[in-house]
Amino acid sequence: MTDRIEDSPLYRIANPRSIAIFGASNKFTAMGTGILSSIKQMGYDGAIYPVHPREETVQGHKAYSSVLDLPEAPDLAIIVLPTPVVPEVMEACGQKGIGHAIVVSGGFREVGDGGAALEKQLNEAAARHNMRFLGPNCIGAVNTHFKLNATFLPCEHPPGFIGMASQSGSFITQMFDYLGRYNLGFSSGFSVGNEASIDIVDCLEYLAKCPDTRVIALYIESIRRGRDFIDAARRIAPQKPIVAYYVGGTEAGGRAGLSHTGALAGADRVYDGVFRQSGVIRAHSIEEMFDICWCLGTTALPRGNRVVIQTHSGGPGAVAADACARNGLELPSIEAQTREKLAEYIPSTGSMNNPVDLTFTKRNLDYFVDIPDVLLQDNNTDALMVYMMMPRRMVLMVAETMSVSMEEAKTIAAQFISDQSRQLADAMRNAKKPWIGYSYYSSESDFIRKLYEAGAPVLPGPNRAARALGALHEYVQLCEKIST
Amino acid sequence: MEIIDQALAAGRRALSEYDAKRLLADYGIAVTREQLAADRSAAVEAARQIGFPVVVKGSGAELMHKTESGVVFVNIADEQGVAEAFDAISSKLGAGFEAVLVQEMVSGKRELVLGLHREPQFGPCVMLGIGGVLTEVINDTAFRIAPFGEAEARDMAAELRAKKVFDAFRGEAAADMDQLAKNLCALGRIGLEQENIAEIDINPLIITPEGRLKAVDALVVLKESSHD
Could you state, in order of their start, the residue ranges of all structural domains in chain B? Predict the structure, then answer.
């Protein structure tokens, strides 16, 4: 364990002041070319040194025929070359004094004995020069706060707060677009590949110290340093939540044992126990993992499992109530004093049971600010779930009644949606209890998109919202257990 | 540990039930009162000392699944029943007969399974589950990697789908969760300290009407490599 983030073997991989890249050329089909292009596209502002045997320049950068000719020893080498030459290139990088590398090339341990022998040579070369590296057989690393995207796909989402380590090759790059849709993003992301030098536990330790990371996400197929993982996660989780998605690796099944215990010990159940013991929240799908990260990174933590649901339509309320019940959440009835306070807002058609169903409110601010505020003050409320929608057409109709031109009405409507979403997002963020939105509307709706942009968690549908709230409660319980 | 060394020296794959329970008792896990008997009169005398009703089982290190082998007789009320059970077991096992185990009959509606196995990447792994003959059908289990503390052990119980089994149930008291947590931690300690043990099954571990826990049957499998 290292105390300072600068001492982590990942620090100079995620924050390199200069980079040597092997395998990038002017040929646009080469994978190395794609990685260099990603690095440039995100606006990396350190020095870039392409190493190429023949080219004089690569994508506008002066190229060097040997790493030994570089004017300095860069912080990081990115190697995207045919497998057989990788160990000797690693050796040359070591001679130059480069301390860290990302080995993207595959064809090592994952392909069998021949590859395993090459991986051993790679490890030996690195060990001779005290080098640490990510991979081999990985897609690289991204640090959006350092404007570094050393992967082969463009990353267009804004700098985010989710720190991720993945044992699946290209998974992180696949998520760039997905997270961007909700205005979420990675702080840093690492693809660990064969974990020959740096493994998922090293990533966990780094992300724990990373100031831009509010929540850690893990994609796990198999944990190799088992005990170290448990010890590290138990130490980290109470300070920074960890959410893991596990998909059975090759170890599942085929346990020959004489006991019932051996027969019952499927990898999936064992991992359930490992995660719970480690204080790690287990997600059962990718969407769920990022939903949980989203809420953990943007809302307060609940003191208990009692949820108040607010809607203006019976259906979304009933579905949310059902979803809460299936996620270990309770629906308390609201206090008498809360009912009194609500009376002035709720028409006779509404319901003050939980779900609180308003059916109709005269002013939008009542629905999005005043009523949630009253509900959050209720002592029976541990968390609030509010159905959110504001169709543009509806706002436009109101604007049109103000006897202005169509163009002016559009401007007024856009301004109104913008103001409302900002106020709402502020209120959600400042609430002392978790307050999350859910909607069947997507970012196609101006209102929902503006909420995403303002950093408000508005989850797609009540099931996902309820599961995420359930996970927040689970996290609080895990922390309590670990600290006893 | 002497019990294990002797079994390994004899080339056995597992401890006898009797030895397995002595090992568990050494680690503080409550087991049935029981005696080994090599002949019929010793069996009857053992039953008299333990008190009726009793259970009579075939005993031997190679007898791993006794119920399936038809050498378990339960709820025997008198001396004649013990003698008959002894004869049935000795004739069933023939030349392979070693002894019978006479033990107290533990009643209780709730049966648990506790276990230990080794995970290559994590080390000794302790299991808690719903026990009895339907264990594998019900498949309601929780696992933890040793070492772990009692808070973690209690959380294993909370993880079971059928966690209400630990509450008061049909006139029987709530289970002693302190004892359960201690038993689970003890299994973890066995895993850490006894490298020659590959796997353990305690099935059933019965919750008595008073809420106490008692290991009624136990299997301790030894490491493959250690008896080559």
Answer: 9-13+108-227, 33-104
